[in-house]
Amino acid sequence: MPIHVEVVSQERRLFSEPEADMVIVPGVEGVLGILPRHTPLLTTMTFGELRIKKGNAEESFIIYGGVVEVRPDKVVVLADAADFTANVNIAEIEAARERARKVLDEGPPPEEHAHYAAELRRAELAINVARKTKSRAGTIRIISQGEEPTDQ
Predict the structure, then answer these.
(1) Nearest-angstrom CA–CA distance, 22 and 10
(2) Using one digit for the tens of pLDDT, what is the confidence trace for 42-87?
(3) For residue 118, what are the CA distances in angstroms to 52, 70, 102, 147?
(4) Parallel, antiparallel, or unpaired: how do β-strands 74-79 and 3-8 relate?
(5) What is the CA radius of gyration of the chain?
(6) CA 35 to CA 33: how far, in whole Å?
(7) Chain centroid to CA 90: how far?
(8) Rounded to whole angstroms, what are the CA distances from 150 to 7, 25, 60, 71, 100?
(9) What gap in Å lies between CA 106 and CA 59, rounded to an integer?
(10) How confident is the model at residue 141 (pLDDT cuts 50, 70, 90)?
């Protein structure tokens, strides 16, 4: 029995797979592995990688917080923000990381410090997840219902 997975950001639905085998979620208390018939659960997510597996194929998303609702037959990921890992441009993200580091090193105004610190954290996560995903051998993208995932 497969599990239906929906990944939704605040702006739109990013992904839908009606027959996934497993979902790996970055929960605030640790990584959650969710299989079909999982006990119902509602929990928050932290920054991290969301992985959806179907056979030997896998999809990967960079998640920047949110909540996940788990039912025995369905997982709904409601992300504060999310990027489809395959669409991440590492060069652009590295440039953004360096800009944020430079501003933080120069000492931004106090009201802007949190913004640049969050920008740096997001960039570092995106780089780490994108590199890790590209280094995994043998994974193929799965796209259901003829939809092409797009990044946010």
Answers:
(1) 23
(2) 999 999 999 999 988 889 999 999 999 999 999 999 999 898 888 8
(3) 26, 28, 14, 31
(4) parallel
(5) 16
(6) 7
(7) 15
(8) 12, 20, 12, 26, 25
(9) 38
(10) low
| Terminal C-alpha separation, the chain | 31
Calculate the dihedral angle through the C-alpha atoms of 42, 45, 49, 53, rounding to the nearest 10 degrees.
0
Sign of the CA dihedral 13, 42, 52, 31? positive
Three-class SS of residue 96?
helix
Of 5, 50, 42, nearest in space to 26 by CA: 50
CB atoms within 10 A of CB 75: 25
Q: What is the DSSP letter of 39?
A: P
Tokens of 117: 């610190």
Record the pTM: 0.76
pLDDT at 97: 83
| Tokens coding 149 | 């995932």
